[in-house]
Amino acid sequence: MTDDRWLAQALDLAVANVAEGGGPFGAVIVRDGTLLATGQNRVTRDNDPTAHAEVLAIRTACADLGDFSLAGSVLYTSCEPCPLCVSAALWARLDRVVYAADRHDAARGGFDDREFYELFARDRSTWPTAVEAGRHPEAFAPFDAWLSNTERTAY
Ligand SMILES: [Zn+2]
Question: CMP/dCMP-type deaminase domain location, by residue (predicted)?
Answer without folding.
Answer: 1-123
